[in-house]
Specification:
Largest sheet: 8 strands, parallel, barrel
Shape: globular
Number of helices: 8
Order of helices and strands: EEEHEHEHEHEHEEEHEEEHEEH
Strand content: 15-25%
Low-confidence stretches: 63-68
């Protein structure tokens, strides 16, 4: 695999010698759920030698319906920051508007740009200007090679670091597919690449007022992406996915997190042992 411009997210090196897990609940529903999910994933990552960045959203602004967007930006940000501080790990969340960048950046170590907004120049500029590294989710409508423009924008804006995240490509109605060779195409742009295992299992709008998904496809896609050679895996977990306030169809059950993280760790070790 090509060398990439690695960068630090707190104490975690992205694009370095270790695979990184970016994980947590989809929505920062409560302090209890954030801490339960975060502590479990942190422990597993430590056990299997992986880097860990806590993730949760303070606002689900791009969901199918109006229900359960969150408890507001101030409560959500404090909840995310407090969880990461208690665990002693870096954290990330997504922003949806340019004016949110400066408000969110002091609370997190990595800013995330949602897939639907990946080409919004003003949003990319605002994120880069905070001095935080930026993780951009590739739009479901975008070809892997078209991410070149996103990387060039962030580079020209002086971003402290840039990463691209694959989260599936639209294939007709309510269906996503993952272009595994496309991961190499994205990484050849010189930046680390993350694979979003849980959102790639979605069936967008597939349940009318909510997004459906095929949860059991997550392990196979995650193993395949790690075998290709991604730098990070994005994984949303919940102790009771069916009762989660968002993405109930695709959040991975927390009590099954061990089997999944162990699998991707073993695949990553095997790939790294291959002759170059």
């Amino acid at each position: 695999m090509d060398q990439v411009a690695s960068f630090a997210v707190g104490s975690v090196q992205v694009g370095g010698p270790s695979l990184v897990v970016i994980g947590g609940p989809c929505l920062a529903e409560s302090d209890e759920i954030c801490l339960q999910v975060g502590s479990t994933l942190q422990s597993l990552c430590q056990e299997f030698g992986l880097g860990y960045i806590f993730k949760a959203s303070f606002d689900k602004a791009n969901r199918s319906s109006l229900t359960q967007r969150g408890d507001g930006i101030e409560v959500g940000l404090e909840r995310i920051h407090r969880t990461a501080a208690q665990l002693g790990v870096p954290c990330t969340t997504d922003i949806h508007l340019p004016e949110q960048a400066a408000q969110v950046a002091p609370h997190v170590d990595l800013l995330q740009i949602p897939a639907f907004l990946c080409r919004q120049t003003d949003l990319l500029l605002a994120a880069a200007e905070t001095g935080r590294p930026v993780n951009v989710k590739k739009g479901q409508f975008l070809a892997p090679w078209d991410c070149k423009n996103i990387v060039e924008k962030l580079t020209s804006f002086g971003a402290a670091g840039a990463m691209l995240t694959e989260r599936g490509t639209s294939f007709g109605y309510n269906t996503l597919v993952v272009d595994m060779p496309g991961l190499e195409t994205m990484r050849a742009l010189g930046v680390p690449v993350c694979f979003d295992a849980t959102h790639s299992a979605q069936r967008p709008g597939g349940q009318g007022t909510s997004t459906g998904g095929v949860r059991e496809s997550i392990p196979a896609m995650a193993r395949a992406a790690v075998a290709v050679g991604v730098d990070a895996v994005f994984l949303e977990c919940h102790p009771d996915p069916e009762r989660a306030l968002s993405d109930a169809a695709t959040q991975w059950p927390l009590d099954r997190a061990r089997e999944l993280i162990q699998q991707i760790s073993q695949v990553d070790q095997a790939r790294r042992a291959l002759p170059h």
